[in-house]
What does this fold into?
Amino acid sequence: MTTKPDKPRAEQAPDEVEISLYEASKKIYARSVKGLFNSWRWALVWITQIVFYGLPWLVWNHRQAVLFDLETRRFYLFGLVLYPQDFIYLTGLLVIAALALFLFTAVAGRLWCGFACPQTVYTEIFMWIEKKVEGDRSARIRLDDGPMSAAKFGRKALKHLIWVLFGLWTGFTFVGYFTPITLLAGEVASWTLGPWETFWILFYGFATYGNAGWMREQVCKYMCPYARFQSAMFDRDTMIVTYDEARGEPRGARKKSADPKALNLGSCIDCTLCVQVCPTGIDIRKGLQYECIGCGACVDACDDVMDKMNYPRGLIRFATENGMANNWSNQQMVQRALRPRVLIYTGVLVAICVAVAVSLYLRTPLKVDVIRDRGAIARMVEQGRIENVFRLQAMNATEVVQTLEVSVQGLPGLEIASERQVVVQPTEVRSLVLRLQIPPGSTASGSHPIKFQIRSLNDAGIDIKEDSVFLVPR
It folds into this structure.
């Protein structure tokens, strides 16, 4: 079998072209905007960052107020001390966070993304730094389009230096939640950081620098899973950023003094400011898109234009699909928020919050385990008495010294033949060997239930009972 050789490249059809299925991403130069939603966004930037950067330095009971000490396996939350055994509370917190996200999304779309998500917050900060160093939107575009020069290199270098330092400060603060931050600061100052602290400071700092400085909207559009499944939580009564097409179309430029009806135009003057201020670079006039993070920047920009044109505000606004279709007022749209889905989310969320709060309130700050000594199950000691040996392990989850006294009951003549008190220091775990004895012949052979009672001599509210068994040999 012979095959016909391929034509030389020069003999191939000259009209063949290569088509790329992927569009190269274009850099977005977001324009600065002022308005109600921008003020809210910056207010949350300040609040979240004051909490994040300031909380590790807050002192509570002569220690760091919030510290997740992995080395000692203790987690301090102000006056609360938690242990790995309290993992159920972390589970409850994650469930509460998930349900709250579902609830807020069902009511008002991606409010979390637009106002409080760390990616949005740090992108806003990095963009502010970029604006201060390189200038406004038009100045940044001219700078990037121009040839490399000493001035351009200096501006770029300064911007990235500030970004890197800010990222490292963020990484340092993050590690300060797991290593006492005053100790960490001393190690940084003396260049004695451990390998793990060094790794996580650099890793978190690099992640902040890369995500907020370089990737920005790419994280929201392609990496964040929430952008993909958010539509499952939306319905036609979800409050989203919406363009009023009936009022805005047909769009077109005109003078401020012109009558749009005479020109057969809508309220949109096609200034594209709503696109220029969008941090993800979308055109909200094309309808709801998964890239929209609901930040409201386009609303502020459009309202400003409407004010200048002496047109009513609200060409772009937060509204629902049903509200836009039926021309509802804001009050009517808000009333529709109390629909079955929202009520179910709210009811479940409130129930879990109450359950976690009650559990924390009723939580005994002392954990006690009574374990039988496997080396001596039951034995006969002096005067024919029957003895069982137990080990009591006490975990003090408070920050005060606890003196514990142990008593036992359940069998006639049952008594503790060893030390019955133990002093447990704050956040300490101590063990106490308990030798329990009964008189000979006082009880039939076999297994008999007994009950230990452990009470604190310092805190009358600590009174714990533990069940066990006493073995009498044949």
Q: What stands out?
A: The mean pLDDT is 89.
